[in-house]
Specification:
Length: about 325
Amino acid sequence: MSEHSTKPSTVDDEIDLGVVFGEIKRLFISFLKVILSIFFFLYKHKFVLIILLVVGVVAGYFLDKVLKTNYRTDLTVVTNYSSTDYLYNKIDALEAKIKQKDTVYLEQVFGSKYDLVKDIEIEPILDIYKFISESEENKEIFKLLLDEQDDVDKFLESHVNSYNYPFHRVKLIIKGQNHHKTITNQLLSHINANEYFTGIKDILIENYKQQLIQNKEIINQIDNIIESVIKEQNSSKENLKVSINENQVIDNILQKKKDLLKNDGFLRSQIQNQQEIIKKIDSNYALEYNEKITDKDKKYLLPLFLISLYLLFYLFKYVISKSKRFYTP
């Protein structure tokens, strides 16, 4: 009885496998037909496709020359005299004026080439480790604020925290590869022409210079004292009794001179680094900017577009012919 019951099952399995393999074979043959059809189509239309490729490359090359593409300029700046809020407000106002196409205002800022400026934005250059290491208070504030935030990255990049970072990146989108340096120099000159911050700068720079003068006078006095002490020691034979005290005084004086020289270096660096309210640290001009498809290299984009259009035309034609056959009684 069992022999009779297993035979139909085996036959059914063989039939099912035969159907599956037959279907796979049919799909594979259909796939090969499609590949061969595409190959024969490309071969048949090879001259037209080559012409479209050449025409697209040549036309795209000349379009890149004639139609100016947008490029990006990056400025790395440092803010002095607590001017971070001022800088961000200025950039935000410029961004709004560009969108409003306020030509009078933009010409005052960027000069005669103002119409080439398409966009502007600013972002802090994150340096959270420097901020934390500056003081224990900063570390505690950072921990407290961070505990209340869900998105750490968003919190660090937020406008509120921009004050805690000394360096910032200003991005300018400018049409064409020329005039980038002129436009950015005009921008920095305009931002730095602020009476309030200029007044603070002049007072502090003058204060630094006066401190340098005072330090120089004190150093000269120290040199004179040391010189006189050495002369007294050389001329007096009884200096052995007071040599320990005198040496202690000389050590203190020399340490004072060392501190003053160190302070001189700090003051000179402050004078050098704080000559501008917003000081440019680095700049990269005319970088590639491919945010939009139209900003990409047209000598590659145009031939691809022409060939795709040609292929789509024949695909549409093929679909129409097939649909007519399908609906024909």
